[in-house]
Amino acid sequence: GMDQIYQSIEQATIFIAIGTSGHVYPAAGFVHEAKLNGAHTVELNLEPSQVESEFEEKHYGLASQVVVDYINDLMTSLRMANQKEF
Q: What is the pLDDT of residue 82?
């Protein structure tokens, strides 16, 4: 339920919202909760949502493209970070 959602948001280091208008609460408030708990916030959307100002990082376009591009970039960054540790 909602308790589990808020618990997950509190523990998140990154919060990614994909394809949301930002109109419907409580979901529209999740980004704010994530920021309060120190998560890096990312909006992947066709166009800016009603809560776009809450996001630190924003990428706009078709989900079939922006999600793929973002995840590929994220995975590359994680691989590079892991290589530096060894």
A: 86
